[in-house]
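STRUCTURE:
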């Protein structure tokens, strides 16, 4: 599971009010040569105080934190420390929780029952500047997006990164600039699959998948995978 693209360790802060859960996470993450748990917090205020002293790369943040919950803490973190990535940890798979945390600036949303390898890959993905949503909630998220009418609602759900002009341009001309292979990769991205899993499905290397993903983001004029998936469904390029 080692990420060879990382030249330094990814510094991770664990924020959860259950000590046993934090200890389990710490044990898993510190087994990876490119990850380092640099601190632990048990409430939202402590998260902000810790980040002010030592800047982690990624904060794993429980949504149900005492004193200040994960949603509020995420918004404050993104306002004060925009370079720190936030991944929400939750037992809730309701799409409303996902939308709310994404709107507040989270880069990832994970369920606490996910496998260790998927958790590690999610941290690496977010640290590289991409978004990651647990596959179990991706379908619910997409269904909610299909029910949306206004383009500004789509923008809010995706972090408001895709401009109205960009969405209109693709939607009006109906042209899909992606190659057949890129479209296949995008569909698997919409299903919540990791780069490794996409490569296994298409019988190509993980490096080739990353190249396709980069090309997709560039052609669609978006910053991360979540925006690409949302817009591809809006344009009708991907159906699930």
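SEQUENCE:
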């Amino acid at each position: 599971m080692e990420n060879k693209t990382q030249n330094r360790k990814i510094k991770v802060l664990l924020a959860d009010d259950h000590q046993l859960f934090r200890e389990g996470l710490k044990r898993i993450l510190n087994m990876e040569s490119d990850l380092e748990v640099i601190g632990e917090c048990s409430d939202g205020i402590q998260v902000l105080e810790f980040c002010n002293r030592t800047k982690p790369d990624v904060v794993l943040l429980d949504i149900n934190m005492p004193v200040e919950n994960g949603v509020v803490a995420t918004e404050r973190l993104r306002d004060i420390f925009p370079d720190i990535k936030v991944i929400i940890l939750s037992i809730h798979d309701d799409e409303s929780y996902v939308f709310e945390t994404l709107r507040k600036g989270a880069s990832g949303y994970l369920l606490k029952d996910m496998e260790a390898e998927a958790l590690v890959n999610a941290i690496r993905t977010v640290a590289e500047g991409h978004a990651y949503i647990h596959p179990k909630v991706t379908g619910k998220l997409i269904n909610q997006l299909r029910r949306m009418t206004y383009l500004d609602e789509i923008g809010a759900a995706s972090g408001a990164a895709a401009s109205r002009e960009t969405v209109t341009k693709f939607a009006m001309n109906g042209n899909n600039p992606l190659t057949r292979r890129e479209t296949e990769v995008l569909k698997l991205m919409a299903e919540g699959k990791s780069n490794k899993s996409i490569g296994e499905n298409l019988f190509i290397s993980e490096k080739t998948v990353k190249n396709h993903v980069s090309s997709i983001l560039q052609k669609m004029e978006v910053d991360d995978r979540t925006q690409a998936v949302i817009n591809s469904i809006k344009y009708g390029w991907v159906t699930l």
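REMARK: Residues 1-6, 149-154, 156-168 have pLDDT under 50 and may be disordered.
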